[in-house]
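Dear colleague,

Following up on Tuesday's group meeting, I ran the structure prediction for the two-component complex that the binding team flagged. I've pasted the input sequences exactly as they went in, so you can double-check that nothing got truncated or mislabelled along the way. The structure tokens for the whole assembly follow below. Feel free to forward this to whoever is handling the docking comparison.

Inputs:
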Amino acid sequence: MRRDASKAALLADHLGRCGDAAYNAAYRLTGNDSDARDLVQQAAVKALSHFDQFDRARSFEPWFFTILHHVFLDTVKRYDRRHVVSLDAETLLEGASWTDILPSREPGPLEELDQKELEETMQRSLNRLPADYRAAVVLSDIEGFAYDEIAAITDSPVGTVRSRIHRGRAMLRKMLETYQMAGEVRPS
Amino acid sequence: MTHHPDSEVLSAFADQELSLEERAPVAAHVASCPPCQDSLAGFQRIKSLAGALPRKTLPEGWSPLPQTRPIPSPWEWLKNARPTVWAPALGFALLLAVTAGWLFFPKHPETIPLEALLAAHDRYLDEGLLPPADLSSGSFSAKLASYEESE
């Protein structure tokens, strides 16, 4: 009992340092506060029960993000039922050249949006990404992990990580343009 | 490098995730190729838009871990408990103990106050309240007599 208490105290100490980053990633993965809390809480409970497997010579954050990622994928079907289905996401790139999909260097209307609108639009686009791509983009572009760290977290080869990030970004770009064209995003 | 690099390579180039051998020819090509510069800028733009999203922090006062506390030893509990906690608990425990004792301990004949019973019996006999055929001349009187003899 006392050993469990000391494990919990140690884990709480680690989470005190990387809890915000985990919650931020969970929020961007799920798109809302309630699901983000569920995700972080489930990951914390799982981390507690597997704490003996944590190698204390290594950094805690990637280990916890690995658990978070597993929990996310375990529950992704449940999340996707509640969010917009992204069945057509894979086809977004078909038939489009990169010059069509990717923007010019000049700042476009997206940069002119106010922060709240931009956040909502980005989050909505993230929610529509397939779970693997979403995780890769969140871990890379939002949490700033290197490719080899993401490969370890997601238990995938580095080449797969590189491909997922690339395709995720391209889809994001396409979706952001679609929102703009549909008038859902109004430049301020 | 004369051909355009794969867009996946450009995406990794934007992240500085190419090896030195891969990086040099891509950098040389991009420097002189406006379409690839546009592609690269597009990846960098998405990356910066995602990175500029406001950071969410754990809600105030919320902990991802279930709140668990070690169970204190009885002595620690008593030491730290306030009288408002332990006094009612102690009273309740005493009440339980008394009730349990009253309910479950057998009442042996030795515990019956025989002197009081005898005194009452004598008084009832004196006052003529007992039916003579039933008690005063029955087995009960005989038993009492034998008891008095043994005393």
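The first helix of chain A runs from residue 2 to 30.

Cheers,
M.
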